[in-house]
Amino acid sequence: MASKSMAFFQVLISSIFLLVFPRCSCEVYDDVAKLKQCRFNAIYNFGASLSDTGNQIIEIPQVWSTKLPYGQTIHKVTGRSSDGLLIIDYIAKSAGLPLLEPYLKYQNATSFLSHGVNFAVGGSTVLSTKFLAEKNISNDHVKSPLHVQLEWLDKYLQGYCHDAKDCQEKLASSLFTTFAGGNDYGTAFSQNKTLEEVKNSLVPECVETLKHVVKKFIHHGARRVLVHGLPPSGCAPLFLTKFSSNNSAAYDGFGCLKSYNDLYNYHNDRLKEAIEELKKEYPHVDIVYGDLYKAMQWIMDNSRQLGFKSVTKACCGPKSEYNFIDNFHKMCGAPNIPVCEKPKQYVYWDSGHWTQNANKHLAKWLIRDIFPKFHCKQV
């Protein structure tokens, strides 16, 4: 009788535990090699710091990501804006390809990397410096916005391909990816542009430019394109510090700024519409939306089960509410700036970039989501 009572008690406790701590669908680890089934022979990536693997530190050697603690988890400073690897690295790993090298490291090489190249540059924008200036937004510090990265692609292909037909054949099995858009809006907000101004004057142009970029990829021969949307930047330490509000209604249940997240969601909705238009125009091409917003939401919804202690505070930064102060000499990487003991317990590494652990989980969610949309055959 006692053993039956004990068994009943254990079942009861287990049931209560599951009610209080529901299981998350976190079993994405079996998907780590899924993209290998797509048989991509190369990856060509474009964008900014969320996927830059070393171009910015070649262009601007004085940025803080040129030194530790950046790269501390992989014991190597590479120019990645993280303590370790990025989402694009995990995508490459999943595809069974080497990690992407930065274009500027090999721009004058006589031999060309056959497994792909990373053209992304930290800080870059989708829109040109000239266009932003016309909107009274200064962006002079950015040397390589997206149109420059496309020029690099043209130069690379001139050496990699014998002719246009050869390019079409070589690129047909490649994956083209973009991680872009956030810096256009962040720069505008930092120069006192309102949410409404950004929504009306920048979002349509940004989405249209990304649409043009995809067409350029297809013109060169791309048959599989992954276009990432924007994450909920209203959760980033930089946004939470610079645009804080005394109105509690401005924040959601995670402590993120709702109005900024709404703007980034608006961008994503317009981008998804543009992708649907492109699919109709190019039915022979797989154009897939990478839902960084939902991936990030999944992490925040399941942060405790995934082992995260903080979802809005930076691991690396001066001690403050979000461990960020808007001062170049007080940023992560500057002398005497503290770093948390366990980066894997933080979603954010610095003011706006994720830790390796967060990147790993984001990548695994994304890979599971995008894999069936590329119609890859099981092997």
From TrEMBL:
Domain of life: Eukaryota
Range of residues in the leader sequence: 1-26
This protein's UniProt keywords: Glycoprotein, Hydrolase, Signal
Classification via InterPro entries: GDSL (IPR001087), SGNH_plant_lipase-like (IPR035669)
GO MF annotation list: hydrolase activity, acting on ester bonds
Pfam families: Lipase_GDSL
PANTHER family in UniProt: ESTER HYDROLASE, PUTATIVE-RELATED, ZINC FINGER FYVE DOMAIN CONTAINING PROTEIN
Family to which this protein belongs: Belongs to the 'GDSL' lipolytic enzyme family.
UniProt name for this protein: Uncharacterized protein
Organism expressing this protein natively: Populus tomentosa (Chinese white poplar)
Upper taxonomic lineage: Eukaryota, Viridiplantae, Streptophyta, Embryophyta, Tracheophyta
